[in-house]
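FW: tagging you since you asked about this chain on Friday. Here's the raw sequence from the shared folder, copied in full. Didn't touch anything.
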Amino acid sequence: MQIRIADLFCGIGGIAEASHLLAQHDRTDEMLISGIGRVQPKVVAAIDIDRSVASLYQHHHGIVPRCSTIESLPGIADDSTAELDMWWMSPPCQPYTVRGSQRGFHDARSQALARLIELIPLERPRFLGLENVPAFEGSLHHQQLQRVLRDTGYHYQQYILCPTELGTPMRRKRFYLLAKRDGKRFADISRKIEKRPFTEFITEAGWEDKTLHVPAESVSHYEAAMNIVDIRKRDAIAACFTSAYGKSPIRSGSYLHCSARGQIRRFSPNEIAMLMGFRSDFFSTCNLSQRSQYRLIGNSLSVPVVYELLSVLLAN
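HL: got it, structure written out here
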């Protein structure tokens, strides 16, 4: 049985990548719903306001995202996607962050989520998933979403998860909500996963790429506020990468230090993509600027976390 997913605010396709991994690892053997048979999650529709993601999304996931503001749509399902089973929502986080002034309901960027909350009782997808920053929890939109889910008969579970809990050496704590129309209990998420070595995510090409080197004068000026990771340390963990990485020198992600090379450099977009759980050559074939690659990966999802959540949501 195929679970047809709408990837809303799709970006570069974190939920599509997780679905691909589920199929690749044959985890679907464990996903039996009501005895119907094997469940195969697949993204069949994607929507994003950013046109720059279209070719990259199509290349990796086989779908051209619809470029539209969600708040302007009469509904999510259309003639080509009338059989949608699930919505995955990753709405803008800025309305709930300190940098975004935490304006929440009053921030225009939250209107798309407000529209989706209105559409839930009308379209009633079988499954729902939402990701946002931890500060989303307790917001007016969070309260409104919970109320609509209860009133519409959904059973839901909420999580605060970080990739470090699942073996990835990168901090990216996020709020997640899963919902389904049946009342069956959600399975537990396994957190007994061995930590992967940090060096597994670092490439030789990154050291050879001079565009990633941080000038000595910049290091001297910002070093006290820079999160610099020593690749020799077995317990090294990268900080959360944001869309400002490569533009803002501090509080946007970590830097790599190798004393043997005498270098401090930025992570490459592909290295961050690997830390986020995407395939190792994710950006290798695209024609996007380095700045655009940093922006897109900084706005994306931790695929290993979404992989586990999707497994839990679709399990019997």
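FW: The chain has two domains: 2-185+301-314, 198-295.
HL: agreed, and The radius of gyration is 20 Å.
FW: great, closing this out.
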